[in-house]
Amino acid sequence: MATSQGHFTRLAGTGLAIVLLVGLAACGGPPKWVQNGSGAFNEKDSKAFYGVGAVVGVRNEPLAWDTAENRARAEIAKTFETYTGYLMRDYAASTTAGDFTRNTEEQNVERAIKTVTTATLSGVRPIDRYKDDKTNTYYVLTKLNLEEMKNNLEQAKELNAQVRDFVRKNADKMFDRLEKEEDKRLAR
């Protein structure tokens, strides 16, 4: 009798543990920082920049975590400096030939956009991570303390002119390439 009562107690304990786990999973869901996203927040007298990075559909788990972390770091970097180059070219022609009853029209609209974020940020570190098993999405939260950021900005001022020149040179190359592709297409 003691054996079957011990077995019953063990089963009841296991059942209770399963119910608790299911209940916790149902109440779960993503942490609040996943929903809040990236930005500057003041928590517990500590001002900081937070970046949330995510990746979905990557089966290699270490690669997924690294990708989400890198994306979270990029979110913080985008807060400081983002250069966007934009070019739109619009061409339209209407040609009438012969007896003016035949009209040929031609249009071509092209758009090229390149966004570059370049920043050297020391002190950005991952502080939390979460995996949504339902969607196979990996999330990483990174943080850069405001005081550390101030120190980094002093160092970054020296790099800004170099970054702008690099982006401008490469943007010109991209548009030259676009023009060559356009010429090839028109020659067909």
From TrEMBL:
Annotated keywords: Coiled coil
Coiled-coil annotated spans: 139-169
Protein name (database record): Lipoprotein
